[in-house]
Automatic annotation (TrEMBL):
Protein name per Swiss-Prot or TrEMBL: Oxidoreductase, aldo/keto reductase family
Signal peptide bounds: none
Annotated Pfam families: Aldo_ket_red (PF00248)
Species of the source: Bifidobacterium pullorum subsp. gallinarum
GO CC terms in record: cytoplasm
This protein's UniProt keywords: Oxidoreductase
């Protein structure tokens, strides 16, 4: 069984599926996306992370949410057990011909995007709605007020924030109170800058969800950061990716990971990470 933890009021899996690679650039097509989500769910995964903005720059919007909806509609398992999280506040753009992520935290736009997300996901109420990324053009509390309004109106049940600093977590908590249940920040062996937010979440009793927990799907600049994980993996006879995820989950009971996958094989391997027990010596070596 995939490791379960409490994320706010949800009993869900500590390892979720990050949907992004299935619908942004270089995805392997719609059928592979459905197959990957079904494989994850069939293996016991109960947390899927998507976003309004998980589509190819210049292409049809919200394809990530559309894929998740189709996969859920066609899945025969217990749908009510699955936590579907989505995010608003980003959109895709081109900058000098390169696909990029635009920021839009204007309250009226967040409200419009979230209502579109609920409709696209085919739900009256989104389980968990994140504000995707601070917009430097909009005071942070004003974006958070829009998320609060969405909770008050029943468009979403629980709130999260993403790419947030300690100061922004405190602002969001002032606005959202206990309905703020998750902070989704980048965290991995090659990205430790968010350690302070991870510790702050532990103090506040808020879930910390690591994005790009394996360092992302692009080749990292410094591969050597994974060397100690490879050594531990060899001793256990598992992939080093499982060791990375197990190390992240060992940072506290409030820790969650959402590894991305382009295909069933990788998410199926990642879902085993909760069974991997690392010794104190191994954890000390990994840092
Ligand atoms: N909140 C935000 O601003 C934000 C930003 C970025 C990402 N995210 C979320 O975080 C999720 C994960 O991030 P990510 O997809 O960028 O990166 P990631 O999870 O760090 O890495 C994904 C890559 O790791 C590979 N992989 C996964 N499990 C593996 C395994 N067990 N063995 C070998 N390779 C494995 C995948 O391979 P294959 O390609 O071969 O399947 C994929 O290329 C996204 O899907 C998205 O939901 C959120």
């Amino acid at each position: 069984m995939v490791m379960h933890r409490n994320l706010g009021p949800f009993d869900t899996t500590a390892i979720g599926l990050g949907e992004m690679p299935l619908t942004i650039e270089n995805n392997l097509g719609w059928a592979k996306g459905i197959e990957t989500i079904h494989a994850a769910l069939d293996a016991g995964c109960r947390h899927i992370d998507t976003a309004w903005s998980y589509y190819c720059s210049g292409g049809e919007e919200q394809t990530g949410e559309k894929l998740v909806r189709e996969a859920m509609d066609s899945w025969k398992g217990p749908k009510d057990e699955v936590l579907i999280a989505t995010k608003v506040g980003h959109y895709r753009n081109f900058t000098d011909g390169v696909p990029t992520w635009g920021k839009d935290g204007k309250p009226e736009h967040l409200i419009r995007y979230a209502k579109q997300s609920a409709q696209t996901l085919g739900v009256d109420t989104i389980d968990l709605l994140y504000f995707h990324r601070p917009d430097p053009e909009v005071p942070y509390n004003e974006s958070c007020e829009a998320i609060k309004q969405l909770l008050d109106e029943g468009v979403a049940r629980w709130a999260g924030i993403s790419n947030a600093s300690v100061e922004q977590i405190d602002i969001a908590r002032d606005v959202l109170g206990d309905r703020l249940v998750a902070v989704q920040n980048q965290y991995s062996p090659i990205y430790l800058d968010t350690q302070d937010t991870l510790e702050h979440c532990a103090k506040l009793g808020i879930a910390f969800v690591c994005w790009s927990p394996l360092g992302g799907f692009r080749k990292p600049k410094d591969e050597s950061k994974f060397d100690p994980f490879r050594e531990v993996a060899a001793a256990h006879g598992v992939s080093y990716q499982q060791v990375v995820l197990a190390w992240e989950l060992a940072k506290g009971d409030h820790m969650f990971v959402i590894p991305g996958a382009h295909r069933p094989e990788t998410i199926l391997d990642s879902l085993n990470a909760g069974d991997l027990e690392l010794t104190d010596e191994e954890l000390a070596k990994l840092g």
